[in-house]
């Protein structure tokens, strides 16, 4: 006799609670979260450094530490710039993350987690029009 075995797996889907006021009116990134950055960052000298760090944000937290970073490291990498000169690591650079509506200013010193972070409410789009920022 031939037969078959049917195995079924049921998984719970992690969805946002419908009645939780934290999630009303926000997209799938929500009002709090985190993401990792790996990007080439332009310096005032005109060279590019490879910077990576973790970003944590909570828009509903009190004014202190709504946006924080950790594990900041900016290094020379050929994929960013193959001829990097001497860099002032105390300089501040500003990066915008439009999909999260966040702007972060940080130094280029490894381990320096002191930043200025702001949520972007509006920005000037490429066509010159002021546009409301939407997290997505």
Walkthrough of the structure:
Helices cover 0% and strands 38% of the residues. It contains no helices and eight strands. The strands form three sheets. A three-stranded antiparallel β-sheet has the order 1-2-3, with no helix packed on it. The protein has a three-stranded antiparallel β-sheet with strand order 4-5-6, with no helix packed on it. A hairpin with an 8-residue loop joins strand 2 (48-58) and strand 3 (67-75). The termini are far apart.
Key terms:
8 strands; 136 residues; mainly beta; 3-stranded antiparallel β-sheet
Summarize the structure.
This protein has 136 residues and is mainly beta. The chain has no helices and eight strands.
Query: In order across it, which strands form the biggest sheet?
Result: 1-2-3
Provide the residue-averaged pLDDT: 78
**What string gives the helices and strands in order?**
EEEEEEEE
Helix/strand-derived category reads mainly beta
**C-alpha Rg, in Å?**
21 Å
**How many DSSP H or I helices?**
0
What distance lies between the first and last C-alpha atoms, to the nearest angstrom? 55 Å
Low-confidence sequence ranges = 5-28
Q: Compute the number of strand runs.
A: 8
């Amino acid at each position: 006799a031939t037969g078959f075995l049917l195995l079924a797996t049921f998984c719970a889907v992690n969805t946002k609670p419908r009645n939780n006021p934290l999630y009303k009116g926000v997209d799938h990134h929500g009002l709090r979260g985190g993401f990792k950055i790996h990007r080439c960052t332009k310096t005032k000298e005109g060279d590019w450094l490879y910077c990576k760090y973790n970003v944590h944000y909570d828009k509903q937290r009190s004014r202190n530490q709504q946006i924080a970073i950790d594990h900041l490291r900016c290094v020379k990498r050929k994929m960013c710039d193959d001829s990097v000169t001497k860099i002032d690591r105390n300089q501040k650079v500003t990066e915008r993350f439009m999909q999260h509506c966040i702007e972060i200013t940080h130094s280029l010193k490894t381990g320096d987690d002191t930043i200025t972070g702001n949520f972007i409410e509006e920005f000037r789009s490429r066509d010159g029009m002021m546009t409301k920022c939407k997290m997505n």
